[in-house]
Amino acid sequence: MSHSGEQHQRPGHYGYVGFATLPNQVHRKTVKKGFTFTLIVAGESGLGKSTLINSLFLTDLYKDRKVLNAEERISRTVAIIKHTVGIEEKGVKLRLTIIDTPGFGDAVNNTESWRHIDDYIDQQFEQYFRDESGLNRRNIQDNRVHCCLYFISPFGHGLRPLDVDCMRALHEKVNIIPVLAKADSLTPAEVCRKKMKEIKQFGINIYQFPECDSDEDEDFKTQEQILKNSIPFAVIGSNVQVESKGRKFRGRVYPWGVVEVENPAHSDFLLLRNMLVRTHMQDLKDVTREIHYENYRAQCIQNMTRMVVLERKRRWVELRKMQEVLERIQEQMQHSHRSGC
Ligand code: GDP
Which CDD domains match (predicted)? Predict the structure, then answer.
């Protein structure tokens, strides 16, 4: 058998037990089970959320969507709409759930318009907490939200109060990834300016990319650094295929030229998709489970313990009162006995 630094034994060699196949066993089992990922999209309507989701996952998740007019939108509160789609690639199945929040930021008064998103995330944690504390823990459906793509408007002067309030309200519960919407409407210098440290300045804790181990190769480290520097990702979405110079691609055609969604010179779309799907999906799920859900769970247990202590205290006070009444009755009886009544 080999220890680190010693010679490795090959299959068929003396001393080969076979635990080197463990990763394959895990791989087979997880592939069979399939994967799930839940993403919430937030940001005011018209910022290109549905277009970007369709472009990211090459699906049409919003076929039945009805876009409301201004009058209908004024009175409407934020809705939570769940779209689920099963996608498969090379035998790997992914059940993707997108939680949409139509109406976000549409009302005249938008204070606390993020409250519905906040409640939704909590409800999923609560459901999971109940399920895993219940009797049948085998087939728990995990609907916890793994990531929130928060769309920042490219117009105006940076973050709006609603953006700051919303991200601050959610940052301890979900991995927030901010994106700068409709980046094709900005010049490179404007993109650069909008990426400045505003998010940190407001004390918003967005999703932190895991630190690279020192033994990782240089390419990987550079890639990770590029990702960190790109936040918020400046993105472009499109639902149409464009044909130009003999090539077909997702893009947007303007009188002055064509923007390619997947061209790194035009936007950070590819960076975002690679990060979300190819490199960090598992980490987003791990952080949800190990940090956000654990915090929720610890809080729940703390509240439950506090309630038990309060209940005990209440019962003790009641008991004490009853004891006092009994003592008083006893005293009265003794008194009347002594006075011979
Ligand atoms: P949602 O309400 O946030 O889901 O926004 P939609 O995806 O429905 O997009 C609203 C409008 O913006 C549509 O007319 C889209 O064609 C357009 N749009 C979507 N993405 C982009 C983009 O990246 N750049 C530009 N310029 N327009 C976009």
Answer: CDC_Septin (cd01850)
Whether 316 maps to a domain, the answer reads no
Q: How confident is the model at residue 176 (pLDDT cuts 50, 70, 90)?
A: very high
Q: What is the DSSP letter of 65?
A: -
Domain that holds residue 84: 22-305
Which pLDDT tens digit goes with each residue over 123-136?
A: 999 999 999 888 77
CATH number for the domain spanning 219: value is 3.40.50.300
Total count of domains within the chain: 1
Nearest CA to ligand 1 atom 7: 48
The average confidence (pLDDT) of the chain is 85
Q: Ligand 1 pocket by C-beta < 6 Å: which residues? A: 45-51, 182, 184-185, 236-237
- Classify residue 4: in a domain, yes or no: no
Beta pairing, strands 241-244 & 233-234: unpaired
For the CA of 47, the closest atom of ligand 1 is: 3
pLDDT at res. 52: 92
End-to-end CA distance of the chain: 96
What's the CA gap between 194 and 188, in Å, rounded? 10
* Alpha carbon of 242 to ligand 1 centroid (Å): 16
Which of 281, 273, 290 shows the shortest CA–CA distance to 236?
Answer: 273
Q: Which is the closest atom of ligand 1 to the Cα of 100?
A: 4
**Mutation test residue for ligand 1: of 39, 51, 62, 78, the one with most atoms within 8 Å of CB:** 51
Whole-number Å distance between alpha carbons of 30 and 24: 10
What is the average per-residue pLDDT within 60-79? 66
CA of 186 to the centre of ligand 1 (A): 14
Decide if 144 is inside a domain: yes
Q: What is the pLDDT of residue 298?
A: 94
Nearest CA to ligand 1 atom 26: 182
With 0-12 / 13-18 / 19 or more C-beta atoms within 10 angstroms meaning exposed / middle / buried, residue 191 is middle
Any domain includes 155: yes
Which of 62-71, 122-131, 324-333 is predicted with the least confidence, judged by mean pLDDT? 62-71
Whole-number Å distance, alpha carbon 246 to ligand 1 midpoint, is 26
Closest atom of ligand 1 relative to the 151 alpha carbon = 3
CA of 97 to the centre of ligand 1 (A): 20
pLDDT tens digits along 94-130: 888 999 888 787 776 776 678 889 999 999 999 999 9
